[in-house]
Amino acid sequence: MTKTSWSRFSKLALACLFVLSVATVPAAAVSVGDSDVVSDAEVGTQVTATATLTELYQNPSLESWTLAGSTELTDVTWTVYYYDQTGAKVSQESFDGQSFSDAQVSADDGTSEIVVEVTGTVPTVEQYSYDPPQSFTVIALEQTREGGSTNAIETWDATYYTSESREARGSIDEAAAAVEQVDSQQAERSLQNAIDAYDGEEFSLAVDLADQAREQAQETQQSNQLMQYALYGVGGLLVVGLLVGGFLYWRSQQQGHDKLG
After folding, report:
1. What pTM does this model have?
2. Which residues contact 71 (CB under 8 A, 6 or more apart)?
3. I need a surface site. Which of 22, 40, 79, 98 has the fewest CB within 10 A?
4. pLDDT for position 139
């Protein structure tokens, strides 16, 4: 095969691969409009979150499908509201439990927009993590085609905490900011120990170690400042010494000229 023929063959092959890749990419599920979902919440408190779905029938051949939802909240109640193009409510459904899978969406019903609302209690943290922060799923929505595949629509997560874990995290954050400003292995070790204590749910110890790291960082910073001031002082003395020496040398030269005269 000649070089020109090989080049044409390569271009044709790439074009075919591109067409095949486009053809195999699944169509977008639906569009997500406004949402009101907490970004963090305290364990044991009740929260309500909502998500709006629009452009429900992006695939012309898909005018009927099923909406499914799940959450890690507990004591959960779902409400799904269906609206037409004028904004008028067509109907609504309610579900209990951490998931539902049989909310029917159909263009024949005049539905053009859906609002999903979930209310529940923030669960207990199973495993604490300082970085990345521990999180849970508030809402996860999916579109299921009849006899077909399931497409993820969107998932909203939030961090969660207790008053003790939040206090510990705040102390570690302050310590980390202080340690970042200095070069102190001792402070870095204390900070890491504080993070380890946090991950092990020893929050009081984490606070103490974080405070220790912050104090060590501040002491290092003060020591560095004192050293810097001392260097400035030594530098100033050297400058003064040079000026005095230069002046005395100049005077000696002037006196020598006077004697010659």
Report:
1. 0.73
2. 98, 99, 118, 120, 137, 138, 139, 140
3. 22
4. 98
